[in-house]
Amino acid sequence: MKMYLDDIRTPKYKFDVIVRSFYEATSYVEENGIPEYISFDHDLGCDKEGIELESGFDFVKWLVDMDIENKYNFPNDFDFNVHSANPIGKENIESLLNSYLNFKNKKIKVYNKY
Question: Where is the Cyclic-phosphate processing Receiver domain (predicted)?
Answer without folding.
Answer: 1-98
